[in-house]
C-alpha cells in the first residue's frame, strides 16, 4: 500500500473540478516517463477507460485503467484492467482541512508480478517510482491551481492555439482546459475544434476565428537541424508568413480577439557575450536575429486593429520530451556529454511548465504588451549547465565538444544557437509578479528527470 498526501491552497470543490477536466491526465503524466495516451473517455465517471502506451524494461506495453467509483468532492477510484502490475487499485481522495483548503491523498493498493520473488527484488524500485511520480503529480496540480486562482475573477475564454501539437502547445492546451477555458487548434488538418489554415497559399477559415477571445501563436518550422538554404527559407516562411496571415485575418474580423500572444525567440538578441538583455535591448545580428525581427513585425496588422499583441521571446525550453534537453540526455547518460566550445556562453533557460504558465499570464494580464523575455531569473553558462546536468544524472562531463567539431557537424546553426551567448533577464515577468515554478536549474532538472 502506497499513500501520498499534499495540502493544496484551494477548496475541495476546486481541486476536484480540476481533476474532472480532460486536460488533467496530460498534465499529470511525468515528463521522464515514456508514456502516450492512446485512448481516453474524457471523463472519470464509472465505466470510463484510459489506455496508455508505454515501455517497461524496454518492452512495449499497454496499460488499460477503468474508473470504478465516483463521489463528487470526495473521491474517485480506478483499477488496472491490464498492464504491468499483478494488481493496481488507485483511490484519489479530497479531504477538507480545518482552514477550508484541500488535502489531496493518493492511495495505491498494488501487487508486483512474480509473487514473492518479484516483491523481493522489485518492491524498493516500485516504491521509489511511485514516490517520484506522485510528488511530481501533486506539485503540478498545486501550481496549476494556483496559476488559475490568480485570474479566477476573469471569465473563461475561448482561445485558439497554433502549433498545438508541438512541445509547448501539447501542454498549454491541456493546462488551459483545466482552468475551464475552451481551446481550439489552428492546424493544416481538419478536426474537431480545429481552425484550418494553409500558410503557403495564405488561406485560413476566418469564419471560425470569429468569437475568439485570444490567440496564442506558436507554430513554426523547427530550427534544430543543419541550416541548408531550403531549411532557412522554411524557417522564415513558417514564422513570418504564418504570423502575417493570422494577424491580417484577425484584423479583418467584426469582433477580433482582445489579445494575440505570438511566439518569438531569444535569437532576437544574437550573440551578445556577457551583456544582460532586457526587453528594451536592441536586436542583434545574424540569421535568427533577422528572422525574429521580421517575425515580430509581421504582427503589425493586429496591432493596428487595436489587438493587444505580446511577443514571447522564449529561451531554451527544458523538457525531456523534446528540445535541447531531450537531445542532450542520451550522450550524457552514456557518459560522453560535456560543454560545447569554451562553455562560457550564456544559456537563458526556462522549464516547459514555466513557458506554459508565462503564456497563460501574458494572455490573462491586460497590462502586458510588446516583447517579453521568457526565461528563468538566472541564466547559466553552458559550462555550469553541463556540470549541473551531469550531477543530476550522476554522470561525468569531462568530454567537451570542441568549437570546430560543433561547427563541422551543424554549421551556422551551431554558431547561432549552441555557441552563441544570450544572457536574458525576465524583467517584464518579474515586474508583473509572475510566480516562477522552476527558478533554480538543479531543482528544475531533478523534477523533470524524476531525480528528486
UniProtKB/TrEMBL annotation:
Domain annotation Coenzyme Q-binding protein COQ10 START: ranges: 8-130
Lineage, opening ranks: Bacteria, Pseudomonadati, Planctomycetota, Planctomycetia, Pirellulales
NAD-dependent epimerase/dehydratase domain: residues covered: 159-365
Domain DUF1731: from-to ranges: 401-448
Pfam families in the cross-refs: DUF1731, Epimerase, Polyketide_cyc
Protein known as: Uncharacterized protein
Lineage top rank: taxon: Bacteria
Family: Belongs to the NAD(P)-dependent epimerase/dehydratase family. SDR39U1 subfamily. Belongs to the ribosome association toxin RatA family.
Species the sequence originates in: Bremerella alba
